[in-house]
């Protein structure tokens, strides 16, 4: 089976501008999920210019305009979204989509109508939000889905106040047993109530970037993709300190020994405040990286 080549990155100048805008949006009062995902796409794909970014937003608006006007209950919204996105336009996912970087890029998912569960969920979320639906993302372990209904619990005593749909499966409405099976299949653990909490936009973007890093980690020749995915994750207001360590090791892997060693030493200084043994291990890695220059 021939694996498709991932898209080519933008110029350094364009990349710097995209990162500035990404950081600004991520730190805004109400970060926009579609904008952030599209900026990730532009960092991956140098052909996605300003017209392309605008066109993707227009496409989300166009799809939202084709939903019926406020159909009513969460179930009615779910059916309307499934009929439009899943059936009429054919948005769905298949196992092979996990092998493609494009499956994590919103503009490509809008074009191909295929993608990972989380990116298909972003399409559902953004189309539904524009149409006024009570919609939110649900970050189940291993399989992102979409919730419909009020986040504050039932006010009228209706039984279908909140429900889950699976955009990867064309928008199928999930029963409680379906959700339990998804979690068990991904993690071997039981579904917990905390897993059903709404996912904030920045958490969604962080998970998208994690998926891109995981894709690149399985392909050492794509270390440049892993590097920009880490760099964008570091621009999010909240990120794991360990990302700095991951970035430093990636630089060493790429043959950038001096830069990698410098970042390893900087990370060792930070981690040394809480764990001297780990800090010394990291300093050892830095010395080994510098030795590669000799």
In brief:
By secondary structure, the protein is α+β, with helices and mostly antiparallel strands. The chain has helices at 12-26, 33-44, 50-64, 74-88, 106-112, 117-130, 176-187, 201-217, 223-235, 242-253, 257-271, 276-291; strands at 135-138, 145-149, 162-166, 172-174, 198-199.
Q: What is the share of helical residues?
A: 55-70%
Overall pLDDT confidence: 91
Walk across the major sheet and give the strand order.
Answer: 4-3-2-1-5
Structural class: alpha+beta
Low-pLDDT stretches are 152-160
The number of distinct helices, counting runs of at least 4 residues, comes to: 12
Number of DSSP strands? 5
What structural keywords apply?
12 helices; globular; single chain; alpha+beta; 294 residues
Secondary-structure topology with pairs:
Layout: H1 12-26, H2 33-44, H3 50-64, H4 74-88, H5 106-112, H6 117-130, E1 135-138, E2 145-149, E3 162-166, E4 172-174, H7 176-187, E5 198-199, H8 201-217, H9 223-235, H10 242-253, H11 257-271, H12 276-291
Antiparallel strand pairs: 1-2, 1-5, 2-3, 3-4
Helix pairs in contact: 1-2, 2-8, 3-6, 8-9, 9-10, 10-11, 11-12
